[in-house]
Amino acid sequence: MEAAKYKRVMLKLSGEALAADKGYGIDFDIASEIALQIKKLVEMGVEVGAVVGGGNIWRGRQGEDMDRTTADYMGMLATCINALALQDSLESAGVHTRVQTAIEMKEIAEPYIRRRAMRHLEKGRVVIFAAGTGNPYFSTDTTAALRAAEIEADVILLAKKVDGVYDKDPYKYNDAVKFNNLSYFDVIEKGLQVMDTTATSLCMDNDIPILVFGLDKPENIIKAVKGEKIGTLVSKVSCNK
């Protein structure tokens, strides 16, 4: 099997990726496909951490009058549902998996403990980090950046609906241009929708590259880890279309 470019990765999946065309809830066929690709990574010797969003179940302040903190905690619980679903798909595929939550719920998952997470990764177990950072006002993008820094991941694999980063919305504009490479500063200065500013700054401060690619084909996860030309790489390099 072809060698991997990265030894330890943080896979960031949106909640919408698990919903697929349903738009809401969990499409277990898609979850199983993603699980099989993660299994291939583990077989390649790659250590895999993962963060899953919760947008397929609860997205932000859906109630206009809802308190922001309450809404954010509801979103954290949604990520736990997705994490357990992905864990089930992974274990059905024969992959040893642990879910660690930033908010303690010991009956269903381990509490997040960095040293324990590192040990799981070293033993070849996939670790899914759920419940965000455990604090309101922080996104799952920031969670992915924070946990990636803590576990010393080589890269964040940011799986999205689009196949990279564009200068404008490719679904709305036919003349949208895709970037091959971007610097962290480019992303912040141009206001590009890669990760939120807090997450991007955290990656910049810790020199963690972000590889943005489309999840329309689950095998793109393998291509990304092998270092194939795919998506948009955000790192220290200058803007390059």
From TrEMBL:
Its main location: cytoplasm. ATP binds at K12, L13, S14, G15, G55, R59, Y166, D169. GO terms for biological process: 'de novo' CTP biosynthetic process; UDP biosynthetic process. InterPro entries: AceGlu_kinase-like_sf (IPR036393), Asp/Glu/Uridylate_kinase (IPR001048), Uridylate_kinase (IPR011817), Uridylate_kinase_bac (IPR015963). Residues 7-213 form the Aspartate/glutamate/uridylate kinase domain. UMP binds at G54, D72, T133, G134, N135, P136, Y137, F138, S139, T140. GO terms for molecular function: ATP binding; UMP kinase activity. Belongs to the UMP kinase family. This is Uridylate kinase. It comes from Clostridium senegalense.
